[in-house]
Amino acid sequence: MAPTPEALKAIDDKLSQRFIELDPDGYFIIYVDREAGLICAEHYSNEINEKGLAVDPETGEPIPCDGGAKRKPTVVYKGRTAKELGMEITEKADPKRLSFLDHALYLGREFVRAEIALLSGEEYVQD
After folding, report:
1. 94-127 pLDDT tens trace
2. Which residues contact 51 (CB under 8 A, 6 or more apart)?
3. 56 within 8 A of 82, measured Cβ to Cβ
4. Distance from the Cα of residue 118 to its chain's centroid
5. Is the Cβ–Cβ distance between 78 and 92 less than 8 Å?
6. Helix, strand, coil: what percent of the chain each, to 5?
7. Dihedral of the CA atoms 74, 80, 82, 84 (nearest 10)?
8. 55 exposed, middle or buried (CB, 10 Å; 0-12, 13-18, 19+)?
């Protein structure tokens, strides 16, 4: 018997709570530009302090997880599909903006979720 959608969501929700080491090459804010029909990923640089927190390289201040920091992205990547956007970041970007495989896996999942939201008209909220 196949698992229910609720059971699958519970698995992913639990996995979302695990500890992951922050990528020293930065982080991405992902969103859908419906008017342009694009999935967008803004890249932001960061440094990791001795407590394992992401800090703004310019100020040394911790970067809040709630999106309250007002920073400019180092670059904005755009793609019409999850695959196209993923290739922009993993194959074409110079310099590379990822150093951890789990970060790349996370981005791939989020890009697919954003593509589904773009196609379905549903709201996309980054996990």
Report:
1. 999 999 999 999 999 999 999 999 999 999 999 8
2. none
3. no
4. 16
5. no
6. 35, 20, 45
7. -80
8. middle
SS3 39: strand
Dig out the tokens for 20 from the structure: 């992951």
Could you check whether the bond before residue 57 is cis, i.e. omega within 30 degrees of 0?
no
Q: What is the DSSP string of 63-99?
A: PPTTS------SEEEEESSHHHHHHIIIII-SS----
106 forms bridges with which residues in the sheet?
none
pLDDT in tens, 52-73: 888 888 888 888 776 666 789 9
CA distance 125 to 90: 22
Reported pTM = 0.84
Tokens of 109: 């999942």
